[in-house]
Amino acid sequence: MKSTPHRHRARRRRSFRRPGRPHVVTLAVLLVVASVVAGFLALTRPDTTTPTASAGEKAGKSPAPAPTASATGQPTWDGKTHVLGDGSTSYTGPQKGTLKPQPLKPGEKPPQFVVFSWDGALEGSDHLFSHYRELAKEYNAHMTFFLTGIYLLPKSKKALYHGPMHSPGDAAIDYPTDEHIRTTLEQLRLAYEEGNDIGTHFNGHFCGDKGGGDWSVEEWKSEIDQFYDFVEHWKTNTGFTDVPPLPFDFKQEVTGGRAPCLEGQPNLLKAIKSYGWRYDASSPGDFQIWPSKKNGVWDFPLQMLPYENGKYQGLSMDFNFLYNQSGGETSGDPAKYPQWEKTTVDSYLAGFDRVYYGSRAPLFIGNHFEDWNGGIYMKAIDQVVKNVCTKPEVKCVSFKELADWLDVQTPGNLQRLRTLDPAQSPDWSSVVK
Fold first, then answer.
1. Is 360 helix (H, G, I), strand (E, B) or coil?
2. Which domains does the chain have, with CATH numbers?
3. Which end of the chain is flanked by fewer CB atoms within 10 Å, N or C?
4. Handedness of CA 229, 232, 233, 239 (dihedral sign)
5. Separation of alpha carbons 174 and 187, rounded Å
6. C-alpha count within 13 angstroms, C-beta hemisphere, residue 71
7. What is the pLDDT, as a whole number, of residue 39?
8. CA-based radius of gyration for the chain
9. Could you give the CA distance from residue 40 to residue 205 in angstroms, rounded to a whole number?
């Protein structure tokens, strides 16, 4: 069977200029309070996926001591692969090919950053994880793939998961097949090696009652700890002996995430302080403005984009197009698919143009691997990537790379950038000093 999104009435906003903060957050919650329940649809389709890992691949060397930390807190590296724990992960040195952040020079126009992010990264029968990884590589882009922890946990071991407020093994999404665990491991390895960001979408995808919005700080910590446990012990849990370790240490590389249904950010932000995370993409939504920090962590919300030639503003996620176009039904009227796809592309590009020719605030696009309304939202992203990532001064980056760039800018320049309205094209010498 297929899962169906929760029903919720969305509101439409007719202006993009910023009102007071409380109103923005309230509006965004109304738009997406139950929106993100769908990244798992690939699991419920006919299982035709075959493993991509070679049967001849071995787990690698026996576990070696983990590298020691330098005075800066970053691990030193001796040029060798260090297999960690049970052999599920390894340390292979600093990630290669990522953006080298530079502070803006006086009067310099900022790059136009665009971040494509994916909730519940799974290489299912639709092969969408590999498709977008390959598309990113083709267009010199990096993306953020939010991994759901139980996507590396076999269904036979589901009792190992104790979701906060839920019985052992319960989850609001399906557990993966063994073959999908294999293919997902392969895509995670390739995504990391190609410079993409691996974040977390946590585990059970619980929303609403007993979901993240109801969880205490300690319950969020439990969810995070279990995420790490599943991804660092997939070899023990699966029994796979022919799949090599992932080439990165999750404790180092996972520095942010997005909560299911965008719920529970206040307590989540308190919980992640002890993990050293640098960003969070769980905010219910905001206008296209330069990011700021919440509780010391970069806040990367979904954004309000002009839908239908600016008739109203909607959030930059596939579910919100689905809701406005087919009332949340994942199989709407096929006769309308071409127009809906065009409207989706036009809305993304209108949001891009508004800041590209204006404030240069980063554009955030969040999606799922899904086939709603004939796959039109995936086709729309394909067009947007090809259109925007090839433009001058555009950098299609991951959330981690954007956090790196923001961290090296002066506080004064960032504060002045935040005063700009989305379409405002300033005298950059008065903003960047």
1. coil
2. 21-46+82-431 (3.20.20.370)
3. N
4. positive
5. 19
6. 0
7. 32
8. 21
9. 9
Phi, psi at 144, each rounded to 5°: -110, 125
Per-residue pLDDT band at 34 (split at 50, 70, 90): very low
CB within 8 Å of 403: residues ≥ 6 apart: 255, 256, 278, 279, 298
- Provide φ and ψ at 425, rounded to 5°: -100, 105
Segment 202-222 mean pLDDT:
97
Instruction: Give per-residue pLDDT as tens, 237-294.
Output: 999 999 999 999 999 999 999 999 999 999 999 999 899 999 999 998 889 999 999 9
Distance from the first to the final alpha carbon of the chain: 57
Q: What share of the chain has pLDDT > 90, as a percent?
A: 79
Q: Which two tokens stand for residue 111?
A: 């790059």
pLDDT tens digits for range 111-145: 999 999 999 999 999 999 999 999 999 999 999 99
Q: Which tokens sit at 324?
A: 């406005």
Across-strand partners of 425? none
C-alpha count within 13 angstroms, C-beta hemisphere, residue 368: 26
Q: Which residues contact 289 (CB under 8 A, 6 or more apart)?
A: 18, 359, 361, 418, 420, 421, 422
CA gap 34, 292 in Å, rounded = 25
